[in-house]
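Why does this matter for the project? Reviewers at the last site visit asked to see concrete outputs rather than summary tables. In response, this paragraph embeds two records directly. Each consists of the residue sequence and, immediately after it, the corresponding structure tokens. Nothing has been edited or filtered.
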Amino acid sequence: MSTSTTSAPPPGTQEPPPTKAPPRRRRHPTRTGLRRALRRDWQLYSLAVLPLLFFLVFRYLPMLGNVIAFRRFEPGGSLFGEQWVGLRYVEMFLSDPTFWQVFRNTLWLGGLTLVFCFPIPIVLALLLNEVRRRALKRFVQSVSYLPHFLSIVIVAGITLQMLATDGPVNHVLGWFGHDPIRFIQEPEWFRTVYVGSEIWQTAGWGTILYLAALTTIDEDLYEAARIDGAGRWRQIWHVTLPGIRPTMITLLILNVGTFMAVGFEKVLLLYNPLTYQTSDVISTYVYRTGVESNSFSYAAAIGLFEAIIGLVLITSANQLSRRTVGTSLW
């Protein structure tokens, strides 16, 4: 029977201590994962280069020009103004009664647009969701989506032609013995015309988002509601609306963020000097003050004030939504 023996080291010698491997540098897991994802899906990430460049060039770089709100700017001079004037232009528009009239008009148009244009796509999506005939559903969808793909110039042109003094709407009113109404020239009609055209143009597109959200609701929830004796209205209230609530909150926050930036292009195309008292908003007032009157510093101060209000509104709406509903953008 063989036994294995270990030879002892000769006397006077000592085994060298084991050498320790150098410590490895720990890589941050987030950075490693990001690099791996970039190497694996670089084709997909490359698609984001152009949008990022667009926002950098047309959204972030122009923010540097806000400095002329506090400096005297002269056309042909320095790009960032000639002389520091502090809050002079801010004090000027805060003491200008025309600005406050424009500010009230902006609040009116923004509030009416939010009150009417936000819930109508939800109602339309709920109604279309109940339609069982596919041909009718597709026809209504196509008719409601079409205005969204028209340019604002075409929408404004159609609106002006339809509501002209000798237009189709006044012809129909004439059949019932009503005198022609000057919808475009009378200030009290501008808000109705603007909000009506906005509903016609945007309701169909908003419906697409809610119809997509409706497809994510589990059918078992409707089955459970029917077993409990819930009718169609109860199912809509307790199943459908809670199911699309995240989409509703997200779109509401985005609409609140653009509350002060009432559609500049459409207002500019629809209004005229006769309707300034109800139609002139901050964006059009800034355009006339800055571009037409060459008061760039004054216009920049007003635009910066509008941007700050929009930032406060969207941040407040996001925080309120997070605390009350539990859904937010960030």
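We now turn to the second protein, recorded in exactly the same manner.
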Amino acid sequence: MARRHVVAVDIGGTETKAALVAGTSEAVAAQKHARRATPAELEPLLAVIAELVDELRQASEHEIDAVGVVAPGIVDEANGVGVYTTNLPWSQFPFSTVLTERLGVPVAFGHDVRAAGLAECRMGAAKDLRNAVIMPIGTGIAGALLLDGKIFSGDGYAGEIGHVNVGHGVPCACGQIGCVETVASSAAIARRYTARTGTPVNGAAEVARRVSDGEQDAVAVWHEAVDALARGILVLATLLGPEAVVLGGGLALAGDLLVVPLRERLDGLIAFQRRPELRLAALGDEAGFLGAALLAIDMLEAS
């Protein structure tokens, strides 16, 4: 199996991360990293991607075979199109075509969460599973659906578990009400704690520390988040029957502070459904660009 050298780019809501990655379709490893703030407009974003690729290309001892780019929102992987996103500046944009022309190498474009899920399935916490959901919890919440050993995309629309209505009544930026991620994402936890107390915090990690200290307001916000997550996972268990749910993203760094109450709440909700094992992701915040690299290598192997 050929060893490939690719640049992987993970477009985030606030930061775009990139890495020089080498490996095969079974396993890859990052060799060098670079990052930039994510611009609020499309053309500057394309320029930032080109800068990151050029920087890492120049740092490589090998020719770059391809580039893999992943992004949030609704993504049509088959056609390399960013269909829709609530927080970033594009709609129906042909990323693969435009970036291939600009960068001069083949570009695979995919969904950030499905790419992270692909990485966890091939070389991480879901490697031994055939049916699972890999669910990073960060600025938003989505799930990569591993069904019968394959990542299922639903033409780009599958896995939006963050936008399941779990009944809390809070409006979401997507236009719906009651979405899981409006109370359970890392961003929502920090935002809701600040709204409740008037005290700004530096992200959900700080709220987690206050939960550990027994602060009542922090505990209340945390329990609301855990309840929403458990109800979202119950929907997944009811519809898909996964063997496990792999929790990733920034919130998963809380470890047992998240998993123990989530397991208890899920146990209280489960009736007839298969009870999914709760696992913590193995690849951390590298999962997105490792998955982007695997998408690029898969594209090369298929051509």
